[in-house]
Amino acid sequence: MTTDTLTTSLRTEPNRRLVIGGLGMTQIVAWGTTFYLPAVFANPIARDTGWSLSVVVTGLSLGLLLAGACSPVTGRLIDRHGGRYVMAFSSILIAAGLWLMSQVTGLTGYFLSWAVLGIGMAAGLYDAAFATLGRLYGSGARSAITGVTLLGGLASTLCWPLLTVLEETLGWRQGAQVAALVHLLFCLPVHLLVVPVRQETTTTSNGGVTPAKPVEHQPAGSFFRDRRFLTICLAFTLLAFVMAGLSVHLLEVLRQRGLDTATVVMIGMIIGPAQVTARVLEFSFGRGFHPVWSARVGALLVLIGVALFSLSQPLAAFVAAAVYGAGNGIMTIARGTLPLALFGPDAYGERMGVMARPVLIAQAAAPILTATVLTRLDAFYLLPGLVILLLVSFALLALLPGARVPSPPH
């Protein structure tokens, strides 16, 4: 879809901005109360229950593993029925998981709460949102995906302070209950009222409208017969492993490289704004280029950022955080837009779900494996290993075909 056609689409679909804004807001809540939850609640839970911190954090890994197992089914459901009820169900599941967590007295109940949260994450985080937008807007979903990630990128920035206030004033158990109520009283109505059931027509490149084609189920293995899909799946999985490992352990990595705590904290604060800034720039200037170029640029920035972290110099670490954060922000968009550009909107939801499985498994394993390396060796060995993984990822993306999106005729 050209820029002119996209502009016309935005004007003729008054609900489009509402859908993007609504999903962006629910993504902030969903990410903040699942993936980012342990950053605030892990230590209070450990103190309250007497469990070790590593055991508490293992709950998130369990949730991510289950999310990966359920993602293909979620994508298939969105392809067939649209995202409204799937994402509404995610709000109910996440609320139930948080409420169950607030009641636990033993590890069985705690891990069960993360199991429920994991299924909710499969139906409610970026992959499900991207699949929903792909089903609604077809090949013209790129700007919508970028808009949702612009808002979703604020999840840690907004939710960490709010969760901290809840934990300090009410305790982590009642804080989890408040978060559950937010899902039921805000996210659930937004998903039900704002997200259309599904798109019954498709906008063509010349502005015409045709009936949307029915989506047929494809076996997961059939996607991997396409070498391009296998390539991007492996590339995004390696990137996810590196970024998940660093998101949990970056502060410890920098401490082991000789930086003091105050400097480390300031460096960490740069990443979030850098992500959002990069997404704004991608939205403003990147739409004229094929998403494969966004993916390559994002992967290269992540690679440069991690390499600079190895230098153990404060100035280099500040630059590294900005570059790494920018690359991270771009890669989140590319993960949704690149498959859409390469393979089209047909079976997009199921394709995203199949790709999400190894990505989520990598995100589940990365914090544990990187912690093991940091404990038994140190950051001096970890960072070069991560750089090698990123080099492989960038090389895979460099092998993909890329083309500039043609300009509209005058």
TrEMBL record:
<feature type="transmembrane region" description="Helical">
    <location>
        <begin position="85"/>
        <end position="105"/>
    </location>
</feature>
<feature type="transmembrane region" description="Helical">
    <location>
        <begin position="317"/>
        <end position="342"/>
    </location>
</feature>
<dbReference type="InterPro" id="IPR050327">
    <property type="entry name" value="Proton-linked_MCT"/>
</dbReference>
<feature type="transmembrane region" description="Helical">
    <location>
        <begin position="229"/>
        <end position="250"/>
    </location>
</feature>
<keyword id="KW-0812">Transmembrane</keyword>
<feature type="transmembrane region" description="Helical">
    <location>
        <begin position="111"/>
        <end position="133"/>
    </location>
</feature>
<dbReference type="InterPro" id="IPR036259">
    <property type="entry name" value="MFS_trans_sf"/>
</dbReference>
<protein>
    <submittedName>
        <fullName>MFS transporter</fullName>
    </submittedName>
</protein>
<dbReference type="GO" id="GO:0022857">
    <property type="term" value="F:transmembrane transporter activity"/>
</dbReference>
<dbReference type="Pfam" id="PF07690">
    <property type="entry name" value="MFS_1"/>
</dbReference>
<feature type="transmembrane region" description="Helical">
    <location>
        <begin position="18"/>
        <end position="39"/>
    </location>
</feature>
<feature type="transmembrane region" description="Helical">
    <location>
        <begin position="293"/>
        <end position="311"/>
    </location>
</feature>
<feature type="transmembrane region" description="Helical">
    <location>
        <begin position="175"/>
        <end position="195"/>
    </location>
</feature>
<feature type="transmembrane region" description="Helical">
    <location>
        <begin position="380"/>
        <end position="400"/>
    </location>
</feature>
<feature type="transmembrane region" description="Helical">
    <location>
        <begin position="354"/>
        <end position="374"/>
    </location>
</feature>
<feature type="transmembrane region" description="Helical">
    <location>
        <begin position="51"/>
        <end position="73"/>
    </location>
</feature>
<dbReference type="InterPro" id="IPR011701">
    <property type="entry name" value="MFS"/>
</dbReference>
<keyword id="KW-1133">Transmembrane helix</keyword>
<keyword id="KW-0472">Membrane</keyword>
<feature type="transmembrane region" description="Helical">
    <location>
        <begin position="145"/>
        <end position="163"/>
    </location>
</feature>
